[in-house]
Amino acid sequence: MANHTPESHPAPEPGGVVAGVDTHRDFHWAAARDALGRVLGTRRFPATRAGYQALLAWLTGFGPIAAAGVEGTGSYGAGLTRYLLAENVHVVEVARPNRQKRRLKGKTDPLDALNAAAAVQSGDATAAPKVRTGPIESVRVLRNTRDALVKARTALWNTLRATLVTAPDDLRERLHNLAPAALLPACQALAAAPAATGAAPGRALLDSALGTRIALHELAAAIHRHNQALAALDTQLAALTALIAPRTLARHGLGPDTTGQLLVTAGDNPDRLRSEPAFAMLTGAAPQQASSGLTDRHRLNRGGDRHANAALYRVVLTRMATHQPTRDYVTAHRTPNRSNGKHVIRMLKRYVAREIYPHLTADLAALHHLTP
Prior knowledge:
By secondary structure, this protein is of the alpha/beta class. It has 14 helices and 7 strands.
């Protein structure tokens, strides 16, 4: 398994062609600008390997490629990004175009591609894309699958409880007070009553009570299957996380879930985390100044990966309950005019990000050297 890091690719060549790509599911629009920002051309290519080859050949026809700005490197542009990196093209991740510019100039796919190239040339886009060919990609897809199963299980539980609300009185009174751990097997145990002797096939289904019992049984069986699948995924994720990030996982308050999210946020290429402040910005844990007059305060940073920020929040809550140094810090910094404690939690998230960074980068570096 090959790992492509920013160090393994040439830096942008001064005076070279800068490309921009607006990615879609079935096709990509590419644009090329010269060193002075002049438009060399735009063209549409299919989102296939043959299309990637044609796109690169079209770009190189204008001269050496300095860099390629690609939108959606983690979704529709993932395949193109992998191909360009394998061909030693310097790829830059480009965010969605500014909405104000879209309102002023309109929106078309070729214009979005040109804007992507302009963002690279102006320095607005500088982030290296995540490499999705390493073991952390396995963590990401397993976590996404787990999240989907949790949502589906929640929907099944909601349907089961709604069905129970309108169930026949004897069934509802017997089941509605049961805790989930007891309700699930009780619903699974509901058996369909056999049809009356001599009745036409399916005639028994005319009984609403029988239909309710069948519905509750099937819903409970589906929830049970989801529980088994989630338990298997949790086991796999715990083992994979411990193998990839043992140093990070050993920190107080971090478990497989929070560590897995931080790994997904960081990606397989450790060079994306240029510094500890950059990691704090990536996780939304670098508070921004909001001081005025005699008030010295910071406000919440709305940028960064909100899932990673939520992971840091869970770590902080765990430490506030079980970590004595953290509890002492909270006591020392909770003042009368800051009684809500939100500012303390923001500061603690920043400290946790600072503590985690060297361990996470060490884990990623070790993984990079071990992965063939």
